Amino acid sequence: MHSGTRALRELLEGPAHDVAPRLLGARLVGPLGAGRLIEVEAYEGAEDPGSHAWRGSTPRNQIMWGPPGHLYVYLCYGVHWLVNIVVAPEGVPGAVLVRGIELDDGRRVLGPGRVARALGMTGEHNGLVLGGAVDLEPADERRTGVLATGRIGLSRGGELAWRFLVDE
C-alpha cells in the first residue's frame, strides 16, 4: 500500500470477520473495470475449517499471512479466478473473498468468478499490493444496512455467518 493510504490500512486491520462488513461499499479498481463491493465472505486461519489457511501455510496460501493490503488470487476448480483481499495483522492468516460488486455503470456482478472476470483479474495479480495496478478505495461512509448469512459452497465452516451483503 502507498504511504498515503492510512484510511485503507485502518480499514483492513482486524480479524477477517470484523473487516469484511466494513469493506461493503468500498470501490475495487481492477485492470478492466471498477465497482463497489456489495457481497463479501470472511476467511480466517486455524479456527476456520473453510479457510485455505486452516491446515497451515503452503506455497499457495502463504500470502494470507499478510501483511494486509495484498491480494490473494487463486484458481478455483481449474476454472474461475477468485479475488481475496488480505486482512488481519501480519502473521495472522485472514482474507476477504469478493463475491459481488456493482460496477461503475450500475450493473451488478454476482459470483466471485464473474467478479474477477469483470475486473480483469487473474493469477498474475496474486500477491499484488493494493494501490498500484489494483486499488481499493474505502467507502465514503459506513454501510448500516448489512445482512450476515452463512457462507456458500463449503463442506465445512459454512454455518459461520461470515458472508456479508449490502441490505438495501
TrEMBL record:
The keyword DNA damage applies. One of its GO terms (molecular function) is DNA binding. It comes from the Bacteria. GO terms for biological process: base-excision repair. Its EC number is 3.2.2.-. It is an enzyme of class 3 (hydrolase). Keywords: DNA damage, DNA repair, Hydrolase. Pfam families: Pur_DNA_glyco. Belongs to the DNA glycosylase MPG family. This is Putative 3-methyladenine DNA glycosylase. It comes from Acidimicrobium ferrooxidans (strain DSM 10331 / JCM 15462 / NBRC 103882 / ICP).
